[in-house]
Amino acid sequence: MRPAVTSALTLLLLSAPLLAMPQDSSSQAAKPTFRSAVDLVSVAAVVRDKRGRFARSLRKEDFVVQEGGARREIIEFRSDENSPVRVALLFDVSGSMRMANRLDAARQAARHLLSALRFGPVGASLVDEAAVFSFDMNLQSLQPFTANVGAIETALSRVVPYGQTSLYDAIEQTARQVAETRPADRYRRAVVVFTDGQDTSSLLKPEQVSAVASAIDVPVYVITVRTSGDKERDDARTEESQLEALARWTGGQLFVTSAPAHESVAARQIVEELRHQYVIAFSASAGAGWRALDVKTKDRDLTVRARSGYTAGTRAGS
């Protein structure tokens, strides 16, 4: 295993979920924030009704959090649709993305997503931000997080297909970089991956990446760019199944697209989900190790999607 990937994975598997950092007194007066403490775990949850609509106006008392089957008391609770969004756009630039204009479709899907974000003047506070990464066998940062749409568009033009694919390694490394950005509690964060779903050289397995991203509460959304021929391949179905499981465990989702209209719908849904998250915090368990989580509501007609667990016993962000 490559040293850089090994150290990154070890660091993440031993780390606790990223907790909210304290804000200044003026921002604390504007909205509730989570106390900055080692003993709090925060979980972002998306709740929908039977018709797929967002369930709004829920209260702390409406939620149930279970850890390993045992109910946990919710210490802090927040729902704020005005929170800004910070999204990492991760592009597959492997050689297979040259085929059937897949990379052009991926860029267009990213532009749909950018059009749904709320950018403001450079330097303004509480506006959405995006970063651009690309990967083949290695991860490249093409544009750090910014609200400058021109800079983001310039980075998109530098996304060029090249070689083999280390899809799962790149997702793990990008999730780590998103989690390390500060201040955490001001932003609803996510990684959005644009890919054809093929992986040829990753050292990490999908379940390892799922555990890492879930532990640090960074949902991973995957937009696959397919052609009709791709859907007929048995290995394409396997790839989709692995990516769907990875996304679901982190609180994200897989979108299989084969037309511009599909890409537009997927992009809008991702941003809408990030805007309609409930953020729940509870006390972390004593002792080190992985803790499985189940977040649900008392109303059985509602469906909750959230990360699947966290790593207890270490300092947040360490």
Structural class: alpha/beta
In total, the number of strands is: 14
**Rg, Cα atoms, Å:** 19 Å
Largest sheet report: 6 strands, mixed
The average pLDDT value, as a whole number, equals 81
Instruction: Write out the strand line-up for the largest beta sheet, numbering strands in chain order.
Output: 7-6-5-8-9-10
General form: globular
Task: Report the end-to-end length measured between terminal Cα atoms.
Answer: 23 Å
User: What's the helix count?
Assistant: 9
Query: In the CATH hierarchy, what is the class of the domain at 85-275?
Result: Alpha Beta
Query: What is the share of helical residues?
Result: 25-40%
CATH architecture of the domain at 85-275: 3-Layer(aba) Sandwich
Oligomeric form: single chain
Order of helices and strands: HHEEEEEHEEHHEHEHHEHEEEE
- Predict the CATH topology of the domain at 85-275: Rossmann fold
Q: pLDDT below 50 for ≥5 consecutive residues: which ranges? A: 1-38
CATH superfamily of the domain at 85-275: von Willebrand factor, type A domain
Strand content: 25-35%
Name the features.
single chain, 318 residues, alpha/beta, Rossmann fold, 6-stranded mixed sheet, 4-stranded antiparallel sheet, 9 helices, 14 strands, disordered N terminus
Report on the structure:
The protein is α/β, with parallel strands linked by helices. The chain has a domain at 85-275: Rossmann fold. It has 9 helices and 14 strands. The chain has helices at 3-13, 25-30, 102-116, 149-157, 167-180, 206-215, 228-232, 234-250, 260-275, and strands at residues 40-48, 63-67, 70-72, 74-79, 85-92, 129-135, 139-146, 188-195, 220-225, 254-257, 277-283, 289-297, 303-306, 309-312. A 6-stranded mixed beta sheet has the order 7-6-5-8-9-10, with helices on both faces. Helix 3 links the parallel strand 5 and strand 6. Helix 3 (102-116) runs parallel beside helix 9 (260-275) and helix 6 packs parallel to helix 8 (234-250). The longest helix is centred in the C-terminal third of the chain and has 17 residues, at 234-250. It is globular. The model is unreliable at 1-38 (pLDDT under 50).
